[in-house]
Specification:
heterotetramer; A mainly alpha; B mainly alpha; C mainly alpha; D alpha+beta; C: mainly alpha; 0% strand; flat; D: alpha+beta; Immunoglobulin-like; five-stranded mixed β-sheet
Chain lengths: 554, 221, 110, 313
């Protein structure tokens, strides 16, 4: 075996025959994929499945936006419209956003970044994917059999008593998928605690690991509450229990408490990993250590913890006590602090950097801008009196899309591009990628900015037909959505194209620090020829660039 | 490759770990994290219980008196005993006593089955007495606030039902362990699965430790 | 093994203690102690839980990390309960739902 | 007519609306400030420190600064606490009806709004209210959760099944305004819309006068009270000692068996009619039968209005 791989010295290991044998070509049979316990292969299984769900959820969104071009109901019936936005929400939240970065990039990168051979529980990891797929099948069945029309929030008593659609199948699907989320989070926590390479202390970890760890905490502690909530809704439908049914003495607001105890932190399941991705990309394309490493790291924890204290801000007009409303409003503002810390630190990281604008960096900068806007409008909806007006309007729709699409999806795409050479051993076409990053940024803003105005004007969400004065803004939004759609279509195409025709990637095409870049692209099944030993801080770009100056760039 | 597979069969150490201590700690931590999620899962039910009980304590107390204290107590004793035998089974596995491991696992399963049987017998009695407000069955309640009493029984059935389901899952896992134990596995360094199952079983016991007073004992008799 | 093997005698002792606690709690339920019934019965349940956790589940000798996990989950349960109950226990405070006293006075005047 | 021209802000048609808008504008100013700040910094750094620019000083600093971190933690914290206090005080005043508010009863169901005026006049999906008069709406749903939303008034409140919810507004402009159901309630959710017609008080009086025969809810409640034979027990001078007096009960604290007290509000009265034994007044026994299923939501409202109208003897 070759000499030790040290992060400090940044010597490329002698790849030798290893580069020929990697995790992708270690087996070609279907069996070798479906029964794999290799975290990298499982990550690719997830990548394919969530892309499928993303396209499906996107199709539903397209139909919704098309229908909203006119104030009347002329494309579909109201019943169908309701099923479409429910399908969009359920698929995008539970089957795309929640698993997106953790299950794809997290699965692929966590063991590589901590210098381990695999996750702590590889078989459990494979099981997670099967559980996810099983849940997905239930939900797909519900959609194909006739759909479900409760909205992704499943508010009782509509979902538990009044809806005649496939609520049970969908709830079962989400219930099952929740366990996939739990097991993935559990696997990450144990891996990060127990499997770090020698010398890799907490403060030498990449910030991506910090944020995945924080995400996992939410997954483990939040998801089970959603599970019990959906179980109770299911039992109300099957057994006629009355926990949430006011006719039987139950309280429908209890459903909302339990539902949002998970579903508010779930927003942070989506955004935290994206923040982690951004914290990797920015240092690489600025060639310097991020400003305030420890503050970015700890703010991830702060967000994870605070996220559990604020769920009641979804209940300001619901009949929750106004005193509880005030408590939740105040706690909600706490989240602003770690979020601001992150944004300011990322911005400060640019200072005195050597900035280049490759695709991942474009996504990262776009993320910072959009997240700032999404976060700032969070101040509006946490302010009690303003929320009373904008609650359940398009203002909310715009706000959470800025976080979940402008934030989470931008981060996801940035990360996919950044680590694409590592995952596939191929480079994506830079020109196309930059073009689509810019298209997505423009399309996104055109789609969702008008919705802020629409919301403050008072257009309620989930409205199929609407007063004619709202049409102009709706048309603007739909027009933007078409640009956004094109922007999403490009990466889907050229990334597949690059698998066959892309340039071969070297082990470290971006000259990035981090253990994952010190093994060949694509990595061998066992990740590292020898367990790496870490002697230095993360993001030591100064040293990296100093060493590479003589050998030229990769 | 074949060398690795063989080694994997001979050694209790999975390939991703460096040593057995790391593996054991990872197993324990993993199980404890899973128990965390279980706690949150039951937490939702306990919260619902707390809210509805504080709304009408008197009716909840009255409804609680309808439960059979004798069988509840017996079941608690049964479950506590099974926790003891489970702890002994783990001990036997770690100290490489195959015979003891089999016996204690078997006894634990017997006790678990006894618990579930008694539980279902109680359900049947509730059904006979018209205290099973499920599936549209008639609910007979002579006392005050039938609505709130019904809520008590709703919660009773959900909470004990979900608990019983956890028991059944535990019994299923133990069946697998028992089969493996008869083949001479799960001893010494291989005892991880027994230890982890033990943690799960004790947790199920813990939940019952709270369910029992909340359901059976809140109405002074 | 990260923890020391507890002696069998400890297990049996703990078991006996658990049965005694069970007897105590059932006995307590036979007397009407007013609000104390609930407090006593929950205190005994807590004691039982501590016994099971410390000895059967080896928390006594667990790594600090496992202890942290347990503490964290209890903390999260506390969050779930305290903030939810913050709503339920203050709903009656505001008379806005049913109409404030001011309104009732004006009604009475009519 | 509802004004359907293109606009960026909804009409301000209630006393509450300008207050909410002021907070909204301040928040916009704050957001614009921070968005511009961040964007300007990003653009400035991006240009100054672009890869090709070799003439710039890149001597690395310490890479962290406690002072800066504290600054950008404290400033957002202080600002957000200010917004919190402002938003909360408005929230309080927005949900607390002033004394002497006119009371409108609302029953929502899939997918319509039913209104009843204090004099008994009923309307569906259209609500006429006088300008310059505080109006309190007390609402209940017959099925799922709905939400009463009038954008021009900046007022919204979920309408729950099983318990009363209320909000209030005082219109400042005459005209017609949208009423939306804001909480998703099923197939025709987006058709559960109506309008609020704000009139000059004199016009409103005329409009009320022009209605068909009607019975004020308190009168209807009194009739129902007789029909259901509530008076057998609940009558001053009736079987004393069997039940607590109803007269002057509303809006006062009631001592319950068990030592707790409860405010005798509308939800309490509703519960006591439907589930009498849930909260038994101290010193009395639980003798009253449940009227669950015998009276519908509108009749309940009438009974409660009647009980409210009973002044202390």
């Amino acid at each position: 075996m070759t000499a030790l791989i040290e992060t400090g010295s940044m010597k490329m290991p002698d790849l030798g025959p290893l580069s020929k044998r990697n995790y992708l070509n270690s087996g070609y049979t279907v069996r070798s994929w479906l029964l794999t316990t290799d975290h990298k292969r499982i990550a690719l299984l997830y990548l394919m499945s969530i892309t499928f769900f993303f396209v499906l959820g996107g199709a539903a969104a397209t139909l919704v936006r098309l229908d909203l071009m006119t104030p009347q109901a002329d494309l579909v019936q109201s019943e169908t419209f309701n099923k479409l936005f429910t399908a969009h929400g359920v698929i995008m939240v539970f089957f795309f956003l929640v698993p997106s970065i953790p299950a794809v990039l997290g699965n692929f990168l966590v063991p590589l970044m901590v210098g381990a051979r695999d996750l702590a529980f590889p078989r459990l990891n494979l099981l997670s994917w099967y559980i996810y797929m099983l849940g997905g099948l239930f939900t797909l069945y519900a959609l194909l059999a006739g759909g479900v029309d409760t909205g992704w929030t499943f508010y009782a008593p509509y979902s538990s008593t009044y809806s005649n659609t496939y609520v049970m199948a969908t709830a079962v699907g989400i219930f099952i998928t929740g366990f996939s989320s739990i097991l993935t989070g559990l696997n990450f926590i144990v891996t990060i605690h127990k499997m770090r390479a020698p010398g890799l202390t907490w403060f030498r970890l990449p910030l991506f690991i910090w944020s995945i760890y924080a995400t996992s905490i939410i997954m483990v502690l939040g998801t089970p509450v959603l599970a019990i909530t959906l179980l109770l809704v299911g039992l109300e439908r099957i057994l006629g229990l009355g926990i949430f049914d006011p006719r039987l003495g139950g309280d429908p607001i209890l459903f909302q408490h339990l539902f949002w105890f998970y579903s508010h932190p779930a927003v942070y399941i989506m955004i935290l990993p994206s923040m982690g991705v951004i914290s990797e990309i920015i240092p690489c394309y600025c060639r310097k250590r991020p400003f305030g490493y420890a503050f970015i790291g700890f703010s991830s924890f702060a967000i994870a913890v605070f996220s559990f204290l604020v769920w009641g801000h979804h209940l300001f007009v619901s009949g929750q006590s106004i005193y509880a409303g005030m408590v939740f409003s105040m706690l909600s503002y706490l989240v602003a602090i770690p979020s601001a810390v992150k944004v300011f630190n990322w911005t400060a990281s640019l200072h005195k950097g050597s900035i280049s604008f490759d695709t991942p960096m474009l996504y990262a900068l776009g993320f910072v801008g959009l997240f700032t806007m999404g976060g700032l409008t969070g101040l509006f909806v946490a302010a009690l009196a303003v929320d009373v007006h904008v609650h359940d309007t398009y203002f909310i729709v715009a706000h959470f899309h800025y976080i979940m699409v402008g934030g989470a999806v931008m981060g996801y795409l940035g990360g996919i591009h950044f680590w694409w050479p590592k995952m596939t051993g191929r480079l994506y076409p830079e020109g196309w990628a930059r073009l689509s990053a810019i298209l997505i940024f423009i399309g996104f803003n055109l789609t969702f900015f008008p919705q802020y105005i629409l919301g403050y004007l008072g257009m309620p969400r989930r409205y199929h037909i609407y007063p004619p004065e709202f049409q102009v803004l709706n048309v603007m939004s739909s027009a933007g959505a078409s640009i956004l759609g094109v922007g999403y279509f490009f990466p889907l195409t050229y990334l597949v194209w690059s698998l066959y025709y892309g340039k071969r990637a070297s082990a470290n095409p971006w000259r990035a620090t981090g253990l994952e870049w010190q093994t060949p692209s694509p990595p061998p099944t066992e990740n590292f020829a020898e367990t790496p030993i870490v002697l230095d801080e993360a993001y030591d770009y100064k040293r990296m660039d100093g060493q590479l100056a003589e050998g030229g760039t990769a | 490759m074949s060398d690795e597979t063989q080694a994997a069969q001979l050694s209790p150490l999975a390939h991703q770990f460096d040593d057995l201590a790391q593996q054991n700690e990872a197993d324990d931590l993993g199980m404890w994290l899973f128990l965390c999620t279980e706690l949150m899962f039951f937490g939702g039910l306990f919260l619902a219980y707390t809210i509805y009980r504080t709304r009408d304590e008197a009716t909840f107390a009255a409804a609680s008196r309808e439960l059979e204290l004798l069988w509840g107590t017996v079941n608690t004793a049964v479950l506590l005993t099974s926790s003891l035998t489970m702890a002994l089974a783990v001990h036997a596995a770690e100290t490489r006593h195959r015979q003891k491991l089999i016996v204690f696992l078997f006894v634990t399963m017997l006790l678990g089955c006894a618990f579930v049987s008694i539980k279902f017998m109680e359900y049947y009695h509730k059904y006979l007495h018209g205290l099973m407000p499920l599936l549209g069955l008639p609910f007979k309640w002579d006392g005050t606030s039938p609505g709130h009493a019904e809520m008590f029984f709703d919660l009773y059935f959900v909470m004990t039902g979900v608990h019983a389901l956890h028991m059944l899952i535990g019994l299923g896992i133990m069946l697998v362990l028992l089969v493996q134990a008869t083949r001479g596995r799960l001893l010494g360094g291989f005892s991880g699965p027994v230890r982890v199952t033990g943690l799960y079983w004790h947790f199920v016991d813990l939940v019952w430790v709270f369910l029992f007073p909340l359901l059976y004992l809140i109405g002074a008799r | 093994m990260s923890h020391k093997r507890s002696d069998i005698s400890i297990y049996v002792t703990v078991y006996v203690v658990l049965l005694v606690l069970l007897a105590l709690t059932v006995e307590a339920a036979r007397h009407d102690l007013g609000h104390w019934n609930f407090a006593v019965t929950m205190a005994i349940a807590g004691a039982k839980a501590v016994c099971i956790g410390l000895f059967f589940m080896h928390l006594r000798t667990s790594t600090p990390l496992v202890k942290l996990v347990v503490t964290a989950s209890l903390l999260w349960i506390a969050i779930l309960f305290s903030l939810s109950l913050a709503d339920y226990w203050t709903r009656d405070w505001d008379s806005l739902v049913g109409g404030s006293r001011d309104v009732s006075r004006s009604d009475a005047a009519q | 007519m509802i004004d359907d021209g293109f606009r960026l802000l909804p009409e301000q048609a209630s006393t509450h609306a300008p207050h909410v808008d002021l907070l909204y504008f301040c928040l916009i100013a704050l957001s614009v400030f921070f968005t511009v700040l961040i964007s300007a910094l990003i653009v400035y750094f991006s240009i100054k420190y672009r890869r090709g620019n070799t003439k710039v000083d890149r001597t690395p600093g310490s890479g962290h600064s406690l002072m800066l971190e504290i600054t950008w933690m404290v400033i957002p914290f202080v600002l957000s606490m200010g917004i919190f206090a402002w938003g909360s005080s408005l929230y309080f005043s927005g949900y607390r009806p002033p004394a002497g508010a006119m009371e409108i009863r609302v029953v929502a169901k899939q997918w319509m709004w039913k209104f009843q005026h204090p004099d008994g006049r009923r309307e569906i999906n259209t609500l006429h209210v006088p300008m310059g008069q505080p109006v309190k709406v007390t609402m209940i749903s017959e099925d799922v959760i709905h939400s009463f939303y009038v954008p021009a008034f900046r007022v919204k409140r979920d309408v729950l099944p099983g318990s009363y919810a209320s909000c209030w507004f005082e219109a400042t402009r005459t005209g017609e305004f949208h009423l939306f159901c804001a909480e998703y309630c099923g197939t025709n959710h987006s058709r559960m819309v109506g309008k609020i017609v704000v009139m000059e008080p004199s016009e409103y009086a005329d409009w009320l006068g022009g209605g068909t025969s009607k019975e004020p809810p308190a009168v209807a409640g009194e009739r129902l009270f007789e029909e259901l034979r509530c008076g057998t027990c609940h009558r001053p001078g009736g079987a004393t000692g069997r039940c607590p007096p109803l007269a002057g009960l509303f809006g006062h604290e009631v001592k319950l068996t068990g030592g707790t007290t409860v405010m005798a509000d509308e939800n309490y009265l509703r519960e006591s009619i439907l589930r009498p034994s849930a909260k038994v007044v101290a010193g009395f026994q639980s003798l009253m039968p449940s009227y669950d299923g015998q009276v519908d939501e509108e009749q309940l409202i009438q009974l409660i209005t009647y009980i409210k109208s009973m002044a202390k003897p």
